[in-house]
Amino acid sequence: MGLQTEKQSRFKRLTNRYRLVIMNDHTYEEVVTFKLTRISVYVVSCFLFVLLVGLTSALIVFTPMKYYIPGFGSQSQRRELTKLRIRTDSLERQMRFREVYWNNVRDVLAGKSSLILDTNAIIIPNLEQSPD
To answer: Which of 52, 85, 112, 129 is within CB 3.0–4.6 Å of 107 for a Cys-Cys bond?
Structure first.
């Protein structure tokens, strides 16, 4: 029985009527009067929240503002960007190879060869003699 009365008191609290009065501060004249319940305030707050989220989403989706969101470009722009990234990577790799090549050419011309030459004698076995 306590649970039932608790539910009724909660519902009664939600449906109690309150008055919101907006008054002129100098003349104390009532400008606007609202009769509210907690449920009506909750419903209006939820409605305004959903409305603001919907308007913000619509503003982003249906205007060019969506292009300011990272990763929201069109499919053709994404493909073009991928091609440009691949091309840039290959050009950077090619530039590094050429830089190494020209540094090696410069070192050879300057006599700064960093090559280690193998000066060990090569012993070739005589194949004409048979082991018999």
So the answer is: 112
Rounded Cα distance, 6 and 9, in Å: 5
- 23 lies in some domain: yes
Q: Is the pLDDT score of 132 beyond 60?
A: no
Q: How many domains does the chain have?
A: 2
Full-model pTM: 0.48
Looking at 69, 92, 122, the residue that finishes a domain is 69
Average pLDDT, the chain: 86
Q: Is the dihedral of CA 77, 80, 82, 88 positive or negative?
A: negative
20 φ, ψ (degrees, to nearest 5): -110, 115
